[in-house]
Each structure stands twice: as C-alpha cells, then as structure tokens.
Q: What sequence folds into this?
C-alpha cells in the first residue's frame, strides 16, 4: 500500500491557501474576509502537519496547536472589530473604513 | 488509505471554493464546516488523530459558533425572522448534507477496515504529543496562553458597547 506522498499533502495545503488568499483579496464583506483568513491559517497548519507526517515527528502537530490558538484569538478580535465596524458605519463593507484619522 | 485522502481533499477544496464565493454568510459557514470536517479527515489519514479531533472541536465547533453569533447579532430586528425562513430552506442544506454524507461514508470505511497503523506510518499518540508539548515546547505553551489572554482583553475592549452620548461623540468625530 503506497503511502501519501508529501507533495500531495503540500499541494492540498497550497490550493487551500490560494483559495483563502483569493477570498481575502476579492471579497469586501468583513465576515467573508475573516472566513478566508481562517481558511488560510488552516492551510498553513495543514502544511505543518504534512511535514510532521513526512518525518514522523510530533513537532508539526505542536506547531498546528499554536496556529490553532492564534487563529482562535485572531477570530475573536476580528469579529469584535466587525461589530464595531457595523455600529459605526452601518455596513460590513471594509472599504467604508478606508480613511484614517490623524 | 490514499483514496480516503484524495476524496476528502476534493471535498475540502470544493466546499472551501463554495464557502468563499458564496453571497449568503450562513450558507458559506455551512460549507466552511464541511471544509473543516474534510480537513480533519485528512489529518486523520496523515497520522494525526489528536489534531483531527481538535480541528473538529475548535474549528468546526468554537470558531464557527463565534461566526454564527456575530452574523445573528448583526441581523437583529423584525426582518430577521423572514431572513431566517429564507436562509433555512431545506434546499440550502442539500449541498453541505451531500458533502458530509461523503465524509461519513469515509469514516465508516475507515472503521470497517480497522487499521491500527495508518498509511504505513505510525500515528502520533497523544502521550507523545503531550510530553513534547510540556517538555521542549513549554515556553510556547506559556506564550500561547498570553496570546489567548490578549485576545480575550482585546475582544472585550473592542466589543464593548459605548454609552449613547459617547457613541454619538465618536460618530461625529468620525464623520468630520
């Protein structure tokens, strides 16, 4: 039984990451941008797990756990920002908040 | 084992594609759940059962619930009931349901085969992962706790509802 090669796993991670990147670049709704960010972080974690699988070490999975922690913290702050955006501008379009003060 | 990897990869890519191109937030989140479940199966075939379980619990559970809460909070009001009815028509559930059925079939296939070793590589056991996590990576665990604390405080501060006068003041400032 042939095992899964590292290239196949990395290809899947690359495809998912590209999809997330396209989502971040193309969408203007902040909820969809955050969803795409989650997809990208997940794909990065997948690449680490694939590398850990290739060498049979636990380190890749531990890095995935750290990415998971970071993603959870990131999404909570991002969604709080989405709520603030909606309260101030009555829209979820990120382009509404393109002007900076100061 | 390879075929399980390929099928769940295809399911993951398809559902991610639908999730990021969708117009309706709730429908996208449904497809995102399918995507996370498919990636959890990929992790399982890559000999990472602990990570697969965490993917289901934290990504497909917690993070999606956060998203759903925010989408629901943003849609308060009278029209939201009508919206709920439009969102939760049975036809919208067909796509995610079909994809999860594929994943369910894969899980049953894996259980039926009863493989102790996955794809020629020993799965990394929780014991190994835990001893590495609290051995050489102890500093990383501490730092992760600091990140979570910072996220908690940041989300509390940003999500706080300002008093009405304070809010109008801020809106005036922003409008200038």
A:
């Amino acid at each position: 039984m042939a095992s899964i090669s590292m290239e196949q796993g990395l290809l899947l991670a690359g495809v998912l990451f590209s999809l997330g990147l396209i989502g971040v670049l193309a969408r203007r709704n902040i909820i969809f941008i955050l969803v795409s960010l989650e997809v990208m972080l997940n794909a990065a974690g997948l690449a680490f797990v694939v590398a850990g699988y290739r060498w049979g070490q636990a380190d890749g999975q531990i890095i995935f756990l750290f990415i998971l922690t970071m993603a959870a913290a990131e999404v909570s702050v991002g969604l709080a920002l989405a709520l603030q955006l909606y309260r101030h501008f009555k829209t979820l379009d990120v382009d509404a908040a393109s002007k900076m003060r100061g | 084992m390879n075929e399980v990897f390929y099928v769940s990869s295809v399911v993951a890519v398809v559902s991610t594609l639908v999730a990021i191109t969708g117009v309706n937030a709730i429908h996208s989140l449904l497809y995102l759940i399918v995507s996370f479940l498919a990636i959890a199966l990929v992790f399982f075939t890559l000999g990472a059962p602990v990570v697969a379980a965490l993917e289901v619990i934290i990504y497909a559970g917690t993070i999606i619930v956060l998203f759903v809460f925010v989408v629901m909070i943003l849609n308060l009001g009278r029209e939201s009931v009508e919206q709920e009815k439009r969102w939760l028509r049975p036809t919208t559930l067909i796509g995610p349901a079909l994809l999860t059925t594929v994943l369910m079939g894969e899980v049953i296939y894996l259980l039926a085969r009863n493989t102790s070793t996955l794809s020629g590589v020993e799965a990394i056991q929780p014991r190994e992962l835990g001893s590495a996590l609290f051995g050489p990576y102890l500093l990383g665990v501490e730092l992760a706790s600091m990140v979570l604390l910072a996220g908690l405080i940041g989300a509390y501060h940003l999500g706080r509802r300002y008093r009405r006068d304070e809010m109008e003041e801020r809106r005036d400032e922003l409008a200038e």
